[in-house]
Amino acid sequence: MPKNEEGMTQSVQATRRHTLQETNWEAISEAGAYVERGSGDLYRFPKESLIPGASPCIVKESRGASVLVKVSEDPFITTFKARLLAAQHNVEPNF
Q1: Each residue's pLDDT tens digit, 59-85
Q2: pTM of the entire structure?
Q3: How do residues 9-54 score in pLDDT, each as one tens digit?
Q4: Cys bridge to 75: 44, 59, 62, 71, which one at CB 3.0-4.6 A?
Q5: Beta strand 32-36 pairing with 42-45
Q6: With b meaning 16 or more CB within 10 Å and e meaning fewer, what string describes 55-69?
């Protein structure tokens, strides 16, 4: 690893930092895999589930605000990869 002028080690590897989209239940408009920030539960929303009036209808009622983090545009992402992505973005997975 190269050293800078002060003698400290500096990484030469590029880092990709991006944040995941956060939304609430009422605002979900895109298919994908979402992890609930508070519980760590994984929810899969295929595009068919977002058609108004279509079955299956997903309804969650709660007194607390529920924030969902979109870990993938693919609702059928493997559980392992979804768990890894959640953990990398400081969301403790519960699946």
Answers
A1: 677 777 789 999 999 999 999 999 999
A2: 0.75
A3: 666 665 556 789 999 988 899 999 999 999 999 999 999 888 887 7
A4: 44
A5: antiparallel
A6: eeeeeeeeeeebebb
Written as six digits, the tokens of 16 are 């990709």
| Per-residue confidence band for 8, with pLDDT thresholds at 50, 70 and 90 | low
Alpha helices (runs of H) in 1-95, residue ranges in sequence order: 79-88
CB atoms within 10 A of CB 34: 26
Phi, psi (degrees; rounded to nearest 5) at 64: -90, 160
Beta partners for residue 35, in sequence order:
42, 69
Name the token pair of 82: 């979804």
Q: Which residue, chain included where needed, has tokens 């930092």?
A: 17
